[in-house]
Amino acid sequence: DAKTTQPPSMDCAEGRAANLPCNHSTISGNEYVYWYRQIHSQGPQYIIHGLKNNETNEMASLIITEDRKSSTLILPHATLRDTAVYYCIVRDHTGTASKLTFGTGTRLQVTL
Amino acid sequence: GAVVSQHPSRVICKSGTSVKIECRSLDFQATTMFWYRQFPKKSLMLMATSNEGSKATYEQGVEKDKFLINHASLTLSTLTVTSAHPEDSSFYICSARPAISYQETQYFGPGTRLLVL
């Protein structure tokens, strides 16, 4: 039972901003939105996470809508090294499971 | 940042043999580690959750006698694929969650590619 919906693929020109959308219309009040990415043949890399406020770090910005039903990951100046599969995951911090359930993600191709 | 290593990075073995994969958190202690499997062009599938000093919790459909998990210390978890067969060939990835109570982020290892001949 998928909790998030992402487009299967996107293209972005190098140097431009990459905006990756994610729908999570059934998100509950205590679930966070996490973003990871996986470059080919490597383990996933943590990017950013948030609850309801927008977040920014050295890698990306996370914009969460006011109703929290969707979010957008923004890579401000995409480079060829940002080509990867990006996963949007919603996860509860309470309880002991702390599991991450990966969907199919968005394959971002950054081109020259 | 938090670093997780895996060893070996790739292994080729004969059918029927057992293979052990190590997952280490290098600069933090992890009470909980997770093991995933990924087939080509597919997403990561959680196999089991490993808690230091206790038995692992396996996901539905994962054979605990085939995939033995040991989490003997706060920095090391091992996955042993017993009596491996070609269908066990896959990319095995571990992740670790820091022991700090407020830190919920998981950090992933680079993965181990297993090929069973």
TL;DR of this structure?
Chain A is built from no helices and 9 strands. With 112 residues, chain A is mainly β.
Report what the structure shows.
The complex is a heterodimer of chains A (about 110) and B (about 120). With about 110 residues, chain A is mostly beta strands. Chain A has no helices and 9 strands. In chain A, the strands form 2 sheets. Chain A has a 5-stranded mixed sheet, with no helix packed on it. Chain A has a 4-stranded antiparallel sheet with strand order 2-7-6-5, with no helix packed on it. Chain B has no helices and 11 strands. In chain B, the strands form 2 sheets. In chain B, strands 2, 4, 5, 6, 9, 10 and 11 form a 7-stranded mixed sheet that branches. A 4-stranded antiparallel sheet of chain B has the order 1-3-8-7, with no helix packed on it. In chain B, a hairpin with a 6-residue loop joins strand 4 (about 30-40) and strand 5 (about 45-50). At the A-B interface, strand 3 and strand 4 of A face strand 4, strand 5, strand 9 and strand 10 of B.
What class, by secondary structure content of chain A?
A: mainly beta
Structural class of chain B: mainly beta
**Number of DSSP strand runs of chain A:** 9
Instruction: Walk across the major sheet of chain A and give the strand order.
Output: 1-9-8-3-4
Backbone CA Rg of chain B? 13 Å
Overall geometric form of chain B: globular
